[in-house]
Amino acid sequence: GSDGARERFFLYADYFAERQTPTGDFNYLFDWFESTAPWHSALAQSRGASMMLRAFLLSGDDRYVRAALLALDRFDVDCSAGGYQAIFEPEGVIYFEEYPKEKNAVINGFMASLFALYEIGHWLGDRRCRDLFDAGIRSLERMLPYYTLPWWTLYDRGADAGRNVHSPRYQKMVINYLKVLSVLSKSPTLRHFRDHWGRLDTPQNRAKAYFFKARRKLLYR
Fold this sequence. Notes:
mainly alpha, about 60% helix
């Protein structure tokens, strides 16, 4: 209800809408490991589409609808062809990749990418986005066991799969993602992992995760 907040929101929404590429990307303009600027990410596309949707719901301006749909247009295209979809090899299921060049199957990025698919499917009645969301949930159900350690959870399934654990801050974040996604999807499997991962989040395990994460950063950065 704040005019000042509304004005700031549209300032940022228009900033990103004007910088969206003709193919729909909200590009990152910095280098990050193997990803060199400009590069795109399923996570950024989802965040951007969610923002464009809210701009439309607040203004009724159809140009934000076009931007939202364009942002998600290549979610059914493989990363190798410039899209956002990859295959999680252990299960042979599709997921949406945060780092298309690296294909590390970062689990928090995949979870985050699902939110806009649900929102566009729900608020705009877009069947394709709803189907992609449902497919993503089915994949997530089969992927989560691979990210679950006896004491904690994993950030990704890259080259050193099994050693890159979540920081305590990210552990809390992915548990919260699962809380929301389990409600949106009504998935018993997601509810199970939501509760199980929550039980792993103890002071002792957080301290252990801090140690492993700090050691990794010293070794690799």
